[in-house]
Backbone:
């Protein structure tokens, strides 16, 4: 299946989820993400990049995450037509871009949304390329976040598509390089 067909199919699955299901899946994903940060405590002292979810998008419940793990999170901003990241005091607002005020930062690791992922680390985004363009020159750990219904055996990718180091769902955290659960 090509990118557009796969994107359409997975977005339809996401749209079929109720608000209660999205909330429940997001809380479960947050618990798996907490386990990841407990296994890699050095990430807690670095600046992380998070995202502000779109409608019907599974995302961490940031209040719960930050209550359990002391993280310094930044969020996407649009700077001169390109994606960058900014830190704000208090809880972030906006979707998908952080609303001011914020300080522009360079994150060390990334929580990455996507339409679909494979356990091989392949990612299918929404088609605008913001994450692919931003991440192509960054070396930080890339953590793809999704509902297990967004996983596919393979994703059609091109040379510019970024790959993930970890995939986190509501059911597990997957180390792409080791090809095993954490």
Residues:
């Amino acid at each position: 299946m090509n990118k557009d067909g796969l994107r359409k199919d997975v977005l339809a699955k996401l749209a079929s989820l109720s608000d209660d299901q999205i909330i429940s899946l997001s809380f479960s994903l947050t618990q798996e993400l907490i386990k990841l940060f407990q296994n890699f405590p050095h990430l807690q002292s670095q600046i992380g990049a998070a995202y502000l979810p779109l409608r019907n998008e599974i995302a961490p419940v940031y209040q719960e995450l930050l209550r359990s793990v002391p993280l310094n999170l930044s969020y996407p901003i649009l700077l001169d037509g390109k994606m960058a990241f900014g830190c704000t005091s208090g809880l972030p607002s906006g979707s998908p871009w952080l609303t001011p005020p914020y300080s522009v930062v360079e994150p060390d690791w990334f929580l990455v949304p996507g339409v679909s992922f494979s356990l091989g680390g392949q990612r299918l985004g929404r088609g605008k390329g913001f994450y692919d363009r931003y991440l192509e020159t960054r070396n930080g750990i890339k953590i793809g976040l999704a509902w297990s219904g967004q996983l596919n055996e393979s994703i059609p990718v091109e040379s510019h598509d970024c790959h993930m180091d970890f995939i986190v769902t509501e059911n597990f955290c997957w180390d792409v390089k080791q090809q095993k659960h954490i």
